[in-house]
Amino acid sequence: ALAQPEFPVIYEDINLLVINKPAGIAVHEGKQVLKRHSVIGALESKYRDQGVSPRLVHRLDKDTSGVLLIAKDEQTAARLEAIFAGEKEAEKEYLCLLAGRLQDNHGRIDFALPGREGAPVRALTRFKVLDRFSQTTLARASIQTGRMHQIRMHFAELGYPVVLDDQHGDFTFNKQFRRVYGLKRQFLHACRLGIEIGGKKHVWSAPVPKDLQDVIDALGSAEKNR
């Protein structure tokens, strides 16, 4: 049997748990994911003895790593869900590598995406370019709205999809990139989350995982050797 996954804890108190979610693990069960192999399933079994039932209040894609906030009780979950549902309440920052050289140093992508009921809802992504390589752009993206696949869909629509995004990305580019750099998943990492709870501002961050840092280093040294 697979061992229960363990997650690095960034922060914990009586109501909140913040973990650095590894890539490759789903936050909840799904068609191809057993509950016990998901983040929430693993946390439920870990906390059962303490009488705590962890609740998801926002989501990260299976192949996205980084800061994930979990409520440890119903009341906190309800409060946090309300915050995440509102605009401008939670600040979520992601590190992403994009296919192509994005010309603008910073900007905003503001077009509607499908909401939970399928009807288009407003979605706003701001970005800042951190570095440009010969065929890719490293950027930081921040979102206040949390639509499903928001960053991935927004950059794909702009014509600079997230590297190795197998759903909204550039298949040919991805295949070549994977071969050269050995990356196994989309280059998307939730590096920072800021939120105000009960009048107190919290900011949590998660370091860049090794698989992504290795790619950044390799891209950088390839540039120097050209």
Please sum up the structure shown.
With about 230 residues, the protein is α+β, with helices and mostly antiparallel strands. Helix content is about 25%, strand content about 30%.
Keywords:
single chain, 226 residues, alpha+beta, ten-stranded mixed β-sheet, two-stranded antiparallel sheet, 5 helices, 25% helix, globular
The portion of residues assigned to helices is 10-25%
Task: Extract low-pLDDT stretches.
Answer: none
Structural class: alpha+beta
CA distance, first residue to last residue: 48 Å
| Element pattern in H and E | EEHEEHEEEEEEHHEEH
Based on CA atoms alone, the radius of gyration comes out at 18 Å
- The count of helical stretches stands at 5
Could you describe the largest sheet, including whether it forms a barrel? 10 strands, mixed
Query: Got a strand count?
Result: 12
Averaging pLDDT over every residue, what do you get? 90
- Strand percent estimate: 25-35%
Shape: globular
Overview of the structural elements:
The model has no long low-confidence stretch (mean pLDDT 90). The chain is built from 5 helices and 12 strands. Strands 1, 2, 3, 4, 5, 6, 9, 10, 11 and 12 form a 10-stranded mixed sheet that branches. A two-stranded antiparallel ribbon has the order 7-8. The protein has helices spanning 39-47, 74-85, 150-158, 171-181, 210-224; strands at residues 9-12, 16-21, 55-56, 65-71, 90-99, 106-109, 113-114, 120-121, 125-132, 136-143, 188-197, 200-205. By secondary structure, it is of the alpha+beta class. A hairpin with a 3-residue loop joins β9 (125-132) and β10 (136-143).
